[in-house]
Amino acid sequence: MNPDSQQTTPPQPGAWRGPMLFVVAGVATLGLGLLAASIMERRVETKIALQPKTIGQPVVDSANWKDAYPRQYGSYAATEESTSHTKWGGSYPRDLLAEDPNNVILFAGYAFAVDYKQGRGHVHAITDPVETKRTQIKEQPATCWTCKSPDVPRLMQELGSPAAFYAYQDKEGSKGGFNDLKEEVTHPIGCADCHDPVTNGLVITRPALKEGFAAMGKDISKASHQEMRSLVCAQCHVEYYFQPEPKNYLKFPWDKGTNVEDMDAYYDSVGFTDWKHAISKAPMIKMQHPDYEVFTKGIHAANNVSCADCHMPYKTEGGAKFSDHHVRSPLLNIQNSCAVCHRSSEAEIRTRVENIQDKIAEGRKHAEAALAKAHFDVAACMQAGASDEELKAIRTTVRKAQLRWDYVAANNGMGFHAPQECQRVLAMANDLAQEARVSATRLLATKGHLNPVIYPDISTKEAATKVLKAFKDSKDRPDLLGTGKAWPEAAAAPAK
Amino acid sequence: MNPDSQQTTPPQPGAWRGPMLFVVAGVATLGLGLLAASIMERRVETKIALQPKTIGQPVVDSANWKDAYPRQYGSYAATEESTSHTKWGGSYPRDLLAEDPNNVILFAGYAFAVDYKQGRGHVHAITDPVETKRTQIKEQPATCWTCKSPDVPRLMQELGSPAAFYAYQDKEGSKGGFNDLKEEVTHPIGCADCHDPVTNGLVITRPALKEGFAAMGKDISKASHQEMRSLVCAQCHVEYYFQPEPKNYLKFPWDKGTNVEDMDAYYDSVGFTDWKHAISKAPMIKMQHPDYEVFTKGIHAANNVSCADCHMPYKTEGGAKFSDHHVRSPLLNIQNSCAVCHRSSEAEIRTRVENIQDKIAEGRKHAEAALAKAHFDVAACMQAGASDEELKAIRTTVRKAQLRWDYVAANNGMGFHAPQECQRVLAMANDLAQEARVSATRLLATKGHLNPVIYPDISTKEAATKVLKAFKDSKDRPDLLGTGKAWPEAAAAPAK
């Protein structure tokens, strides 16, 4: 035997690889096993979580859902604390007349010129409409309650039909049913507005949305779960109006579609007008909050993202994953909302959103300034003696311009839900308002007035409110022409 | 010994797991090994590919780069075949005057009203400017060649300075240097415009971009490789003008920034005007193609995507990965371009882009119509006897409106590179144009003309060209006021 063979062979480079590989494989397998076990456990948990729970009575009181869904209830209750995101200075709720006094002029003769605040969180849904001056200065129909409480579907059932609810009045001579129902409608927007108390699943509780879909030839009962995560919101976050016949019947103006042009054409086709403008006497439409309509035109909708995905994102507490019912601006919750899909820092996301909103705000400002001037231009024509016949086409243009502006201005999200569409619509609004001004300028000239219209100071809420009051009060109307002469009697009569 | 112990124990459930795991681990390890080997091999290949190659002489001839970079050269050569994407009907190059006859009116008095076609691919960079009527109807300065050929940096060096090139004239009495240099400038945009022939890396060959950065206090030599992948494009795809002093010196109007307002303010500050409008006599600015400026305002730039990422995306042939030098619309190459980041079908991506472009087109249409009318409104004032002094402010407003419209209209991508910004700018353009019209309407009235201006037919290129010709030809100016009287002599004089 060669003694050399007794020598220990030095380890070959890489000889450790075999055992090492085995250890790595072992650790990996253990890890996979634990992961699989965790997944299986989570699936069991989820199945349990998805089983319907029994809800306490009455189900219209959200507190009775608390035991079954403590996390969802807890986050829902947090809507009491809603705040504006920091950009708007923290004053809450925002006074939209003080923030933008043009609103006083644009809504002249309508309750929004008197009180126009940012809506608060869902738990304030009873308090806010009772406290706003809009329901105090004028008796409002029962229909105004439709979106405020789960008591409403209950009342519709008790009264026998939605129509009976919308037309409700409890005493002879009552001019509206809003105050008449104060004692019946007491629970703010809550669980039962969107959830079936038996299956606990999502459900459409308001007839107007179903009817709106049907009018477009769509069957809402075929909506997927993901679609329902937007549609429960669309029960209320839409443009709507109260039909004169059936009395105060709530309807979405969707018969021709949900583009702003479609809704404009619809209102024209039924000859509907919300109010006569106190300054220009134009027949106006107030857009409410066409959030769903705008949202469907945007990129998030195109990618099948639902309202809930951003405004009620999933959240984990302990081992439980649930939808955060503290409905609010995603900008107050970027990490759980936007950042789930968008891999950017919170600061970057915020900047990106605010850049979009700033550009929309700029477009709004242009359109708004043109609209305010257009109302005064028409009034100047009236002061100069122009007839309703002469002003008809101009007033129609102003109506169409403001409807477009309001489609953007009234919708939540500052245009973020569909920036391209909102800018398109604002551009139209501006263009139409300016076209009205060109025509008004020419009409004014035919009446012998060649100087620029003297626009009153509307730079603050107080100043604008003073101007509005002067217009309502026939004898104090501002002298827009600078002639020093009194207004003709017909033109000075109040708008209503 | 208990005979039972001799019995074969039946396999326990799951007893196969041990050997199976070992096999799986083995296969996985083999796979990882192969992957690692492939990665190492690719890295070696890449290192070799990145080593500078020797380029044949003269380097201004792109064919001399072919041996070293056959794939890049081959794709570059394909720019000969560029086509518009299908939406524009396949006519190529698009005639932008026929497609949109408003252009004839908006550029009245400027060469773009005579010939305005879509630019073709890079290999046509010599043919296109020679063939366009824009360089034929008027002698153009040598500066016009700046972006057309790698012969330009060579000539700047041979002539001793960029200034000497810009001011070049080869004979006494020549009114421009463009034709004078035809024999010197013969190689279309190619390799040497963006690549250093020694290092083969990206390089800025044009002084105007360096100077533009310097004017904003930025040092372009500090740009990262990713930034360079946009900046080589920004040498030409920008707004620029020729300074009167130093003679025809190429300058980007970026001293105050690259927002449209910044450039507007810059041009005002230096009192520059491209031409006097043939219809309104307004002092106009032609925006060229502010692609880089617009791009930097968009979401792709915000995410550090470069021009080359979308317009020259990476491509693999055999084992080699290279940048596709067939520069073109990503819509002609969605799979390699957009789809690398955006996980949607080609059809979805196309629809999304076209939706954005359609909305921009709508905003453009509004602004354009208002602008065309504004030019005629000013002309109507002239016909009515308004003085230059009376029209000064209105003409300034028209200038500012059209500069904004053109910032969007002239830039490539139909607004896609920064949709929000483009819509913001178009809204301003429209607003300003309409403000000008309100003022013009009032001025017209002070001259005793209360009827609407009679706008001539400009619905086709031919009709619009006829109108333009009539305006240039003092005796045939259209009767915008419908008075049947001849134009006052001063107003009827040609614009130039």
Helix-strand blueprint:
Two copies of one chain form a homodimer.
Chain A: H1 17-50, H2 70-77, H3 96-99, H4 102-106, H5 127-131, H6 151-159, H7 162-166, H8 191-194, H9 207-215, H10 225-234, E1 241-243, E2 249-251, H11 260-270, E3 275-276, E4 283-284, H12 291-295, H13 299-302, H14 307-311, E5 314-317, E6 320-323, H15 346-383, H16 388-409, H17 419-446, H18 461-472, H19 489-492
Antiparallel strand pairs in A: 1-2, 3-4, 5-6
Structure description:
Two copies of one chain form a homodimer. Helices cover about 45% and strands about 5% of the residues of chain A. The radius of gyration of chain A is 30 Å and the shape is globular. In chain A, the strands form three sheets. A two-stranded antiparallel ribbon of chain A has the order 1-2. Chain A is mostly helical and about 500 residues long. In chain A, a hairpin with a 6-residue loop joins strand 3 and strand 4.
**Lateral strand order in the biggest sheet of chain A:** 1-2
Helical amount of chain A: 40-55%
- β-sheet strand percentage of chain A: under 5%
Compute the separation of the termini of chain A in Å: 122 Å
**Oligomeric state of shown chains:** homodimer
Main sheet of chain A, how many strands, which sense, barrel?
2 strands, antiparallel
Q: Decide which structural class fits the backbone of chain A.
A: mainly alpha
Order of helices and strands of chain A: HHHHHHHHHHEEHEEHHHEEHHHHH
| Number of strand elements of chain A | 6
Tell me the greatest interface: A-B, 40 and 40 residues
Low-confidence stretches of chain A: 1-5
